[in-house]
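Hi all, long-time lurker, first post. I run a small reading group and we've been trying to get comfortable going from sequence to structure in the token notation. Rather than ask abstract questions, I figured I'd post a concrete chain and ask someone more experienced to write out its structure so we can walk through it together at our next meeting. Sequence below, copied exactly:
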Amino acid sequence: LTIQNSLLTNNSTTGEFSGGGAVYSFNGTVTINASTLSGNLTSGRNGYGAAIHMVDGALSISQSSISGNAT
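-- Answer (accepted) --
Happy to help. Here is the structure in token form:
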């Protein structure tokens, strides 16, 4: 997955073991460049990764802003 020049904002997941309000990846490769991830939310029991939840795989982030996300 490649995210380029994007705004991922105010996304959410809910429920037990939910994760990745903006991005969820299982054993993949995620590249984020020149993008903003903000205001994302993961709620529920055992929620993980309000903005990004990676399970194994590779993550590369450059020239991006990640702020104001909550679990």
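A couple of things your group might point at:
Residues 1 and 30 are 5 Å apart (CA to CA).
The mean pLDDT is 93.
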